[in-house]
Design brief:
The chain is an alpha/beta fold. The chain is 40% helix and 11% strand. The chain has two domains: 163 residues, no CATH class; 388 residues, Purple Acid Phosphatase, chain A, domain 2. The strands form three sheets. It has a six-stranded mixed beta sheet with strand order 3-2-1-10-11-12. It is globular. The termini are far apart. It is an enzyme of class 3 (hydrolase).
Length: 656
């Protein structure tokens, strides 16, 4: 019996072993087949996905695709890829495939097809973005693909009406708009310093290779340069993130030169662009360093510092999940790292609001009649693929914004607005942008300026009153601390804020200061060299920065080539920048450079299109005056006169 029992046990064991091995072989065969399907599906979109890897990093200088239609609408998720990939991904997920196996599938495809700038970054990048993607599809199995693709890539597919027709509530009792009074020329002015897009890299190592085919080089792992000229420099290098020495130099120069500043706006993107390395520890280290160092540098001054967050602050770059997903994708640590150095100077209820949603509002200590409104404009970012899951006024921010503005108006306060992504950027979802601009149009009388970053180069954006050609607000989209093929920069604004109750807080002048990388790194004293490349009143021939003046300045550039060249030098943060490519006599180039300055509402590009057509068709004739460049020919003067009449009709028609 013992022998029979042993034989029986042996047979059972062999049967189980055979069954398991057959099952394993079948599973391996199934995986191989699925892997082949994934690779075959991705193959046609290889270039699209390669561009995505660079797009998500946010840099231009090292980007091999940067020269391809740089002014086009943002396509973080290409339309064709989106509409084809979503059903395919859903089909795979419906098989019950574990998340780990899905990550392995996509990682193998990434490596096999060379989708990433370097193969080693495939796995960490895929892992980061696959987790929220699978969460979304499993949490929302009935997700409308057209809504998803149409929000992430506006115009790609039709979006459900209820997702685009929502409106925030506004107090419609708009007061009469009066002319903007400016201070006498002799009065003292208040200074505002603006730092944005620092993109610090605490791993930057002087002497290491600046050429690595990645968004941020200049690290130990990038090895030694082929020659000394390609080695990372002390204060920064064109193809790398900003080193600590460069950040310290910028902060210290601003402190020494503008120690009497009233305000500092720190508007996001504190960390380098190697997004596959992001994580709570890595990001927190950079956020705390940028934020705390600023406070320490200005600790012996009375300046008020207002920080916020950018799209690079989350541990998964660009992604701001809705409240329903916070249990799995919390960002509390991020908000805390940015606000902690300043929590003693900002009211507790506003600190708590920021820690939850990323926006807040403060009454200035310098003047109780001035309010600073800090927005989380990342919530309109079409590169945030959580946006389609809860697109109707995320975190109730716009309604809060409208209510805050209404209180400010009732208390007779003036308002400064700061954010990271300009609502006039094509990165901002048009529906959100439109609702935001309804608030700006309603409260134009008390808004004295808007400050943003994100774009790395430098420009203005004009907001027009709804349904008119009347300029009502200026957005200052300022240059980055990140080199990205340019010099690091910070900006200073002068406001009418030193006259007590008579202060209007209108912006009177604008300066741009650059850390000249070539001069600084070649300096035998090993000291940073700064240059002032803009005094708006001098270089742009304006008497102030009120909307009408900036609007006129932009219009004058259409035919004043010297003025336009001066703008181009500042736009790219210095004419020694490798990215400085003046348009010369190329009117198409000029049209691309200027027309987007008339977009503050991405749902209405009519002013952009009108300016673009004018640039391409206007008859500019030479003038004899030295330094004049080009001026309007008589036929164009008639056109401009008609435009002026249109502005006046719009102005008074809106009032009566």
């Amino acid at each position: 019996m013992n022998i029979i029992r042993k034989l029986l046990y042996t047979c059972v064991f062999l049967f189980i072993a055979f069954a398991c091995s057959s099952n394993a072989a079948e599973k391996e065969q199934d995986f191989s087949a699925l892997q082949e399907r994934v690779i075959k599906f991705i193959q046609p979109y290889r270039t699209h996905i390669q561009k995505w890897f660079w797009r998500v990093s946010g840099v231009t200088y090292n980007n091999p695709f940067a020269s391809e239609n740089p002014s086009s609408l943002a396509t973080f998720v290409d339309c064709e890829v989106c509409t084809q990939a979503l059903p395919f991904l859903k089909e795979i997920l419906q098989t019950g495939i574990p998340e780990e196996l899905l990550i392995q599938l996509i990682t193998v495809a990434c490596i096999a097809l060379d989708l990433a700038p370097a193969r080693r970054i495939c796995q960490p990048t895929v892992e980061k973005y696959a987790k929220p993607a699978t969460y979304i599809f499993r949490d929302k199995p009935d997700l409308n693909f057209d809504d998803f693709c149409g929000i992430l890539n506006p115009g790609c597919t039709p979006v459900s009406e209820h997702l685009t027709s929502w409106k925030i509530r506004l107090n419609n009792e708009k007061p009469l708009i009066k002319p903007r009074p400016l201070p006498p020329p002799s009065v003292a002015l208040s200074k505002i310093i603006h730092f944005t897009d620092i993109h610090l890299d605490l791993h930057y190592t002087p002497g290491k290779n600046t050429v690595c085919d990645l968004p941020a080089c200049c690290r130990v792992e990038n090895g030694e340069p082929a020659n000394e000229t390609l080695g990372a420099k002390t204060f920064g290098s064109l193809g790398c993130a900003l080193p600590t020495a460069g950040l310290e130099a910028m902060y210290q120069h601003a402190r020494d030169t503008h120690h009497d500043a009233r305000f500092i706006f720190l508007t996001g993107d504190y960390i380098h662009s190697n997004v596959w390395e992001y994580g709570q520890e890595e990001n927190r280290m950079h956020l705390e360093h940028v934020s705390q160092l600023l406070k320490d540098t200005f600790q012996d001054t009375s300046v008020e510092i207002y920080p916020l967050i950018g799209n690079h602050e989350p541990d998964i770059c660009n992604l701001y999940p809705p409240e329903s997903a916070w249990g799995n994708f919390s960002l509390t640590w991020m908000y805390d790292a940015v606000i902690r150095p300043y929590e003693d100077s900002i009211p507790v209820n506003q600190v708590n609001l920021f820690r939850k949603y990323g926006y807040y509002s403060v009454q200035s200590k310098a003047d109780r009649n001035l309010r600073i409104v800090v927005l989380n404009t990342n919530l309109c970012y079409i590169d945030n693929f959580w946006l389609p899951t809860a697109p109707i006024d995320p975190f109730n921010q716009l309604q809060w914004f409208a209510d805050t503005m209404d209180l400010a108006e009732r208390f007779g306060q003036k308002v400064f607005i700061i954010g990271h992504i300009s609502p006039g950027s094509y990165d901002c979802w048009p529906t959100w942008s439109h609702q935001f601009n309804r608030v700006i149009s309603r409260y134009e009388a008390i808004i004295k300026g808007q400050w943003y970053g994100h774009e790395h180069d430098q420009n203005y954006k004009i907001t027009f009153a709804e349904g008119t050609n009347r300029p009502i607000s200026v957005s200052y989209v300022d240059g980055s601390g990140l080199p990205d093929g340019m010099n690091p920069a910070y900006n200073v604004f002068y406001a009418d804020g030193e006259r007590g109750n008579e202060s209007t807080w209108e912006i009177v002048n604008h300066e741009t200061w650059i850390l000249n990388l070539t001069a600084s790194n070649d300096n035998p004293k090993n000291e940073p060299v700064f240059s002032q490349i803009l005094d708006a009143q001098t270089h742009y021939k304006v008497s102030s920065m009120v909307p009408e003046e900036v609007h006129d300045f932009i219009k004058r550039m259409v035919c004043d080539d010297e003025l336009f060249l001066a703008y181009q030098k500042v736009n790219i943060k210095g004419d020694d920048s490798p990215r400085f490519k003046p348009c010369g006599n190329d009117v198409a180039c000029k049209s691309v450079a200027l027309r987007n300055l008339f977009v503050a509402n991405t749902a209405d590009v009519s002013h952009r299109d009108e300016l673009g057509r004018m640039i391409l068709s206007v008859d500019c004739s030479e003038t004899e005056g030295e330094g004049k460049g080009h001026s309007l020919a008589p036929s164009s003067i008639i056109g401009w006169t008609l435009s002026l009449i249109t502005v006046l009709v719009g102005y008074y028609g809106e009032r009566y």
